[in-house]
Design a protein that fits this description.
Layout lengths: L1 H13 L4 E14 L3 E14 L3 E5 L6 H8 L7 E6 L2 E2 L5 H11 E5 L10 H11 L4 H14 L15 H13 L5 E5 L7 H16 L3 E5 L3 H4 L4 E6 L2 E7 L1
Parallel strand pairs: 3-8, 3-9, 6-7, 7-8
Antiparallel strand pairs: 1-2, 1-4, 4-5, 9-10
Helix pairs in contact: 4-5, 4-6, 5-6, 6-7
This protein binds adenosine-5'-diphosphate and magnesium ion.
The site of magnesium ion has 2 residues, from helix 2.
GO molecular function: ATP binding; ATP hydrolysis activity; transmembrane transporter activity
Organism: Solirubrobacter ginsenosidimutans
Pfam families: ABC_tran (PF00005)
Length: 244
C-alpha cells in the first residue's frame, strides 16, 4: 500500500519542466531557383523552458534568423515539428496563429522598426490598436510599458529625436505592451554603442526576472554573457548548448 502511494511522487520528480518552446528535428529548406536548395536548419531539436534567458550565437548565415522566424511563428519548418506551449503550430489555423503570436510573443529587431514622425507613445500603443483595446486602456498600458523601459519621460518624442538606445527601448516597450510571455530579439544591440547596449540588456534582464522567456540572437560574446544559456549554431545545426 505504501509503495503504491509513493510511486506517483517518484514519477513527478523525474519529469522535466514543460518547455514553452520545443523544436523536434526541424529542417528548413529554401528553394532558390529551379535546382538549388539551401538548408538553413538541419534537424534541429531544442527545448526552452519557461522563464529561461537564451542567447543564440553563430556566424552570419548559420540559421539564427531562420530559427527565430520559426520560433516566432513567422515561418514554418519544411519538416519536423514545432510546439509552442505544447501545441503543434502545424495544427493551428492561420487566423488563430496570428492571434496566438500577438498574445504570446513580443518581437525586437536590430533596426528598431519604429514608425517615423510618430511619438514614442503612439508607437507603443500600436499593437494595442490591433488588439482592439479602448483608447484609455491603450494609453494606460503604453505608459506603463514605457515606464518599464525607463522611457516614461520621453513619451512625446519622435524616433528621430531619440538616440539609438532610446529608440530600441521604445521598441522593447512596444514588444511588451501586449504582455507576451516570450520576447524574441534578433540582434537587438547590433546597431547600438556599448552604453546603449547595456541599457537594453538591463531591460531584458528585468523582463526575464519578471518571469518572461527571453530568446536573443547576438554576434557579441559580451552580450551573450548576459543570458543564462548560450546556444551556438553552425551551418544550420546546434554546435553547442551551454548553461552559463
Ligand atoms: P543568420 O541569421 O544566422 O545570418 P539566416 O537564418 O538568415 O542566417 O540564413 C541561413 C541560410 O539560409 C543562409 O545561407 C541564407 O542565405 C539562407 N536564407 C535565409 N533566408 C532565405 C530566403 N528567404 N531564401 C533563400 N535563402 C535564404
Ligand atoms: Mg540573421
Amino acid at each position: 500500500m505504501s509503495q503504491l502511494g509513493a510511486a506517483p511522487e517518484t514519477v513527478a520528480v523525474d519529469v522535466a519542466p514543460d518547455p514553452v518552446i520545443e523544436l523536434r528535428e526541424v529542417t528548413r529548406e529554401y528553394r532558390v531557383g529551379d535546382d538549388i536548395v539551401v538548408r538553413a536548419l538541419r534537424r534541429v531539436s531544442l527545448r526552452i523552458e519557461r522563464g529561461d534567458y537564451v542567447a543564440i550565437m553563430g556566424s552570419s548565415g548559420s540559421g539564427k534568423s531562420t530559427l527565430m522566424h520559426i520560433v516566432g511563428c513567422l515561418d514554418s519548418p519544411t519538416s519536423g515539428r514545432y510546439l509552442l506551449d505544447g501545441a503543434d503550430v502545424h495544427d493551428i489555423h492561420e487566423d488563430d496563429l496570428a492571434d496566438l503570436r500577438n498574445r504570446k510573443i513580443g518581437f525586437v529587431f536590430q533596426a528598431f522598426n519604429l514608425v517615423p514622425r510618430t511619438s514614442a507613445l503612439a508607437n507603443v500603443e500600436l499593437p494595442l490598436t490591433y488588439a482592439g483595446l479602448q483608447r484609455a486602456d491603450r494609453r494606460r498600458r503604453a505608459l506603463a510599458a514605457l515606464d518599464a523601459v525607463g522611457m516614461g519621460d520621453r513619451i512625446h518624442h519622435q524616433p528621430s529625436k531619440l538616440s539609438g538606445g532610446q529608440q530600441q527601448r521604445v521598441a522593447v516597450a512596444r514588444a511588451i505592451v501586449t504582455n507576451p510571455s516570450i520576447i524574441l530579439a534578433d540582434e537587438p544591440t547590433g546597431n547600438l554603442d556599448s552604453h546603449s547596449t547595456h541599457e537594453v540588456l538591463d531591460v531584458f534582464a528585468r523582463l526575464n526576472d519578471a518571469g518572461r522567456t527571453v530568446v536573443m540572437i547576438t554576434h557579441e560574446e559580451d552580450v551573450a554573457e548576459r543570458a543564462a544559456r548560450v546556444i551556438r549554431l553552425g551551418d544550420g545545426e546546434i554546435l553547442s548548448d551551454v548553461r552559463t
